[in-house]
Amino acid sequence: MHKMFKALTVAACLTALQASLAHAELKIGFAAEPFPPFSSKDASGKWVGWEIDAIDAVCKAMNEKCDYVEVAWDGIIPALQSHTIDVIWSAMSITPKRREIIDFSDTYYRTTLFVVGPKNGDLNIEPGHLADKTIGVQGSTVSAKHAEDSYAPAGATIKTYATQDEANQDLAAGRIDYTIGSAAVMRGFLDTDGGKACCEYKASVSDAKVLGEGIGAGIRKGDTQLKTKLDAAIKEVAKSGEFDRITAKYPELKDAITTPKP
Fold it and tell me: How far is CA 26 from its chain centroid?
């Protein structure tokens, strides 16, 4: 009788443990700085955007309860490493340098960069042509690295900002000459009244050497269990067509990003 009771108790505990694991609260970190249309706060203070909708779908596919944590972009990798968050889901490009310190899920979308400058019809963005110009970029991004690698050596001044919005505002005000940013974000800026009045699209940057492998979820080194779950969930969301349905909600993302296909 005691053995049977013990066996039932163990079975009940295992069932409870499995249930708790299936619904563990994953701490999903995303940049506190607004990055529309991917992530920003609406009038009520709620976070909205493509990234938010996408991680909602991925968490559902994983059967996980996810807790969203705002972290300053510059501190988001240290927050992952210190276990303040479990996953970085914040338009983070997969690059060799980042792979040295964190692991990544499979790619969940790819994008290009836009170079935007004053509305003057000059579409030449060769480094030598921009040698005496000031180029604004959001810090710690592939845009910033591209500017530092390609334009700074030719003599351009690179000015970094906490957010792309701040760079766009300075471009509109004439305080910088050019900016480089995500195609989707820059297209949204160019569609605003301020963007239409001041600025124009100059060129796209789509070189894989610049952009890396695409956008992925950052996880701690060696966390293979979580990577497996994320990868499977990303595939499931792609197969269901949910990524396409989410993207359709944001017209500015049409042709600006590509998501995984089944």
Answer: 18
